[in-house]
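INFO worker-7 received task bundle
INFO bundle size: 2
INFO processing item 0
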Amino acid sequence: MAEYFLQNRWMIEDGALYYYGLRNRENLFKNKVRITKKQLDIVRTLPRDLSDNEIRILGKLIGVQVVTKEEFRPTPKSLAEARFCSECAANDYMIPGLEFDGDRRCPMCGTASETENLKSLVPIIDEIPHSKKSRFDVAIFYTGGKDSTFLLYHLAKVKKLRVLALTWEIPYMSDSARASIENAKRHFSNVEFISRALAKDDLRRIYKKLYELSDNTCACPSLAYLLFYPDLVAEKVPFFIAGNEPVQALGLYYNRMAPKIAYSFPENRSLGTLINIGRLLMLRPPLKKGQFQTLMTMKQLAYGDHPLKKLFGYSNPLVSNVVTAIHEVPSLLPPLKKTIRGSSRSGNIPAFVALDFDKICGGNYDWNKTKAILTEECGWVAPDESSKALHTSCKIEKCKDHSQFVRFYYCRSKLIPFSAIEIALASRNQCRSREEILKEAELHLGFSLDEPCECSVMLKFLEDEK
């Protein structure tokens, strides 16, 4: 007889076992294990000694889901207690339940060669032509942060395109981002800047619902899409781009929000042909590259997740919660729905596309080199914290990190903290050293079990009815 435990991070849910963590390469995404009623009855009674017959009934669960005291892996309570990947900054404190292979590599490093082509969920294009039908060649969602400023610099200064820069003003915009936006207006003569803000009462209603669902109020960039899509259509802008760096797109895969096929879909001509046949039968013009992605993005905001996404388990809870919150202010939706219908009928749909930041930079999108270029060429203002690079445009980014981290740490959410995945990928791709990454994590990200002081800024806006 020996005492056995249910391994840490494995939880009983709906008569099965679910693992709150990122498993090793061999078992990647195998987080749910179905068990028999007899097995379930035994597991419910753990920890305790098990007889030989009970061990036989548990079978393959022994040593993995059901373990001895010596095999039990507690969740670290701090970064100092964490186990680290041998190749990157990933660790089992920032990603509780992180598993390693025999060489102590995390699953991101173990699957690097298999995921190197998973770059974007929207079409990647190399060149944007000058438009003959619009005053603008391209629009971007501009936050004043590092990534969107790099995108603005590349399109306006390097490619000399006519750019429409769209800024959704949030109450938490950082001082450095505001200064960067004002400096950009002086640096770029071929860019038109538009800023828009929701009425505070409407925004507060949305934020309160979002806080109830997610413990934070981050709604970027979804609300920007909602606010500006009618403008994009009215101006007949041919392309629009969100300023996301490569690791953010790949993070969706490791968070099981996008399967591999989703990354190849934009270039799948057969699927595109089938979609266009359906549109022609409905007397709709065929879609060009990136237009399908636009329609799906806007329809999700207006109507919610497609049932198939939920059926196959690839629903994005971040976006789903934002959509639920947006519906707290129903008056926002009719203009969006009207524009979706009109643009779908006419074919006047701005294409949602992406640029390959790594390719633009000739290898890797190096954060430190990028900041130096933007400071010199765009008047970009770095945050006061010189080591901060992952997120630079929002005062409450740490609150989002913290809420995602704490909810996952205590197994209240299946969402792995996005910043934890992103900084692991960034260090894996040699954008930054492990030392730089960990310094930023300790100083500027929300990976603490204690609530960061920045949460008071977020809560003050929610509580301030004036």
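INFO item 0 finished
INFO processing item 1
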Amino acid sequence: MFGRKGCGILKVGVSSACLYPMITERSLSSLMEMGIFEFEIFFNTFCELTKPYLRGLRREIRSSKAKVYSVHPFSSAIEPFMFFSDYERRFTDMLDLYKSYFEAARYLGANVVVIHGDKLPGRVQDEKYIERFWTIAECGAKMGVTVGQENVNLHRSQNPDFLVKMKQQMGERAKFVFDIKQSIRAGHDPYEFVQKLGDSIVHVHANDNSAVRDCLLPGKGNMDYYKMQSIMERNGSDPTWVVEVYRSDFDNLSEIRDSVQYMNELLFPEVQNAPKKRGMIWR
């Protein structure tokens, strides 16, 4: 379950990737100190998937009453080579690695693990891609998480018609992570994109854009988030939302806080009177 149905009162969160290359736990500490307690965690290396590291991370998340919505693998760049080639043994080995992400996600209470998938022009036919993704999604489901295909520029997933094809062939197992900036970069209208994906969007990477920049903090550009949310609600989609931009897209951390507050006031005004929580200090 996702969004307000699955998490009670939903708030807009932030991806730890926004603060890269700050180390992951310090990113969360910095965000919590500003009053942000909802996250996507972008793991950056193998040691962050180990039990000792995850135990420490979970302890601090729980003590601060924070919520992790999603997990993003650092190995996205090698998914085309490992998951979507004609060499079956690589697929098996990569699936074993991704079980570590699935385990980490469930351990931290996250629902979604984000997949980029194959780059264009593609190493395998559409049917083989969908078959492979089905296997990945089934593995995730058995371990208690949803595997979400993200739309990514210069990847097969940049085309909404391809994602519709995935949905038609995979049925309820097809779930998507929608990234606004990626649709802009691929030349697709973001409102039409979410309309095509219907009720299958489970997670949104929120960012803004203007005539001169394709990635800005929400509230700095031209996006109509209320319109986007309304489209998804009409389609029966109730995703979680996290701000995801690059470190070069803002000067001060307070700008992230202001952006999150802007989105919460716009999309989820009922959270504004919620009690404040104390921040986390990593130990």
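INFO item 1 finished
INFO post-check item 1: The longest strand covers residues 67-72.
INFO post-check item 1: The longest helix spans residues 88-108.
INFO worker-7 idle
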